[in-house]
Design a protein that fits this description.
There is one protein chain. The longest helix has 15 residues, at 63-77. The protein has three helices and four strands, in the order E-H-E-H-E-H-E. With 99 residues, the chain is an alpha/beta fold. Helix content is 38%, strand content 19%.
């Protein structure tokens, strides 16, 4: 229970590393806001995790949506302790000099 009573937002938590991280955070005692653009997958992970999780549609390229996720976590659980910025896409596009 290393994360007992901690509140986390995990971006990109609807699948892959983000979803597995959300599962592990909950196993360790955290409350987790699943932030993802994949509504069906994000909601499924939140449903699987029960009362310890909630889902919010978030596009991390939109600052106001990230702010809304922070506000939701604080509103629901009273604070935010951990921000795991996991969201991404298929990979960097361009040469190392360009990216």
């Amino acid at each position: 229970m290393r994360l007992k009573d901690q509140v986390a937002i995990i971006t990109g938590a609807g699948s892959g590393i983000g979803a597995e991280s959300a599962r592990r955070f909950v196993e360790e005692g955290a409350k987790v806001l699943i932030a993802d653009m994949q509504d069906d997958k994000g909601q499924a992970v939140a449903d699987e995790l029960g009362d310890a999780a909630t889902f919010l549609h978030v596009d991390v390229s939109q600052e106001h949506q990230v702010e809304a996720a922070v506000a939701e976590a604080v509103s629901k659980w009273g604070r935010l302790d951990i921000m795991f910025n996991n969201a991404g896409f298929g990979g960097a596009l361009g040469s190392i000099e360009q990216t």
